[in-house]
Amino acid sequence: EKTDSCWLWTGSIANTGYGSFVAEGRTIAAHRFAYELLVGPIPEGLTIDHVRARGCTHRNCVNPAHLEPVTQGENTLRSDNPP
User: Fold this and answer.
1) Residue 26: beta bridge partners?
2) Is residue 15 classed as helix, strand or coil in its secondary structure?
3) What is the mean pLDDT of the chain?
4) Mean pLDDT throughout 15-24?
5) What is the pLDDT of residue 57?
6) For 43-70, what is each residue's pLDDT tens digit?
7) Which sign, positive or negative, has the C-alpha torsion 46, 27, 13, 2?
8) Rounded distance, CA 7 to CA 66, Å?
């Protein structure tokens, strides 16, 4: 599969549309786990954005090339319903 395509999580999908799984009694967001596993730690205070400019429109995408650490404010501005 091409690296510019979305990698859609096929496990559990939360009602928010994000992929997730349970490990050691904790629910883990699949996209955050994939980013940390394949890229590195998410800087403190930042969240992970699925970047539309990179072609990503799926909340259950775990392709690290589609994910970017941003502030919550930036993530909100990039969302479907910015303030």
Assistant:
1) 23
2) coil
3) 92
4) 95
5) 86
6) 999 999 999 888 898 999 999 999 999 9
7) positive
8) 9
Query: Residue 25 corresponds to which tokens in the numbers above?
Result: 């009694």
Q: Exposed, middle or buried by CB within 10 Å (0-12, 13-18, 19+), for 28?
A: middle
Distance CA 61, CA 52 (A): 12
Give 1's pLDDT tier (boundaries 50, 70, 90). very low
Nearest to 59 by CA among 17, 24, 23: 17
For residue 9, which of 80, 70, 69, 62 has the smallest C-alpha distance? Answer: 62
β partners of residue 8? 61
pLDDT for 55 equals: 85
The secondary structure of residue 36, as a DSSP letter, is H
Q: Residue 42 gets which letter from DSSP?
A: P
Q: Considering only CA atoms, give the Rg of the chain.
A: 12
